Every structure is written in C-alpha cells, then in structure tokens.
Amino acid sequence: MFEITHRATGETLLFVEADTLEGARLRAAPLDGARLAGANLAGADLSSALLTGADLHGANLSGADLTGANLDGADLSHANLTGAVLRLARLQGAVLVGANLTGAHLERAHLEFANLDGALLQDADLDRAHLTGTRGAEAGQG
Predict the structure, then answer these.
(1) Is 25 helix (H, G, I), strand (E, B) or coil?
(2) CA-to-CA distance for 112 and 137, rounded, in angstroms?
(3) Is the Cα dihedral 21, 86, 33, 29 positive or negative?
(4) Which of 1, 52, 61, 76 lies in the 20 to 30 Å Cα band around 120?
C-alpha cells in the first residue's frame, strides 16, 4: 500500500492499493498540497486530479495523463514530463524550472505566471496555451 501525504502537515491524503505509483489510476484524486517529490508516476492517470500546491519536484511523470488537472502553484521543477498529456491543465504560478516537457501535450493549458526557466520544450504542443506573464516560455524550444 502506498500512502500520499500533505507536504506541510504530513496528513494522509490518499492510500493507494499498490506498491508503486507508476501507472496508478488517480483520476480526480484530491491531492492538493501532496508530497510527491521524486515519485515515479510514469504513465499514471491523473486526469482531473487536484494537485494545487503539490510538491512534484523531480517526479517522473513521463507519459502521464494530466488532462484537466489543477496544478496551480505546484512545484514541478526538474520533473520529467516527457510525452505527458496536460491538455486543459491549470498550471498558473507553477514552477517548472528545468522540467523536461519534451513532446508534452499542453494544448489549451493555463500556464499564466508559471516559471519555465530552463525547461525543455522541444516538440511540445503549446497550441492555444495561455502564457500570459509566463517566465522563460521560450526556453528550450527547438
């Protein structure tokens, strides 16, 4: 069993009946403020999950489905989001410093005031993404 706790209070947010979060089904999970730094969430279904203010620093989210997830204010610095699906996701004020977003799907994502300094955005799809006030949005595009 895997326990997900709050980053500040240590309160249990969710128990997952698995030994790992890789490929986990966490659709619409209430994970605001979750402590998931360094977690392996590769291929996980986090669509419509509530991850406001979550600590996902260095997490592996490659191939994860984050469609419609709320990641406002989340720390995704140095996270691996290669090929992740973030369509319609909310990432307002999120920290994506050094994150790998190569081939990520960010169509219509809300990235207002997000920090993308040093992020890798090669082949990322930013079609109709909201980038007002975004810092470093041009970083790593190629």
Answers:
(1) strand
(2) 10
(3) negative
(4) 52
Residue 18: how many CA atoms within 13 Å on its side-chain side? 13
DSSP reduced 3-state for 106: coil
Nearest CA to 54 out of 72, 27, 67, 39 is that of 72
70-101 residue pLDDT tens: 999 999 999 999 999 999 999 999 999 999 99
Catalogue all structural domains in the chain, each as residue range(s) with its CATH number.
1-12+30-135 (2.160.20.80)
What confidence tens digit (pLDDT) does each residue in 54-69 have?
999 999 999 999 999 9
Say if CB 48 and CB 27 are below 8 A apart: yes
Euclidean distance between CA atoms 116 and 118, whole angstroms: 6
The DSSP line for 31-97 is: -TTBB-TT-B-TT-B-TT-B-TT-B-TT-B-TT-B-TT-B-TT-B-TT-B-TT-B-TT-B-TT-B-T
What six digits make up the tokens of 79?
């996270």
**Centroid of chain to Cα 52:** 10
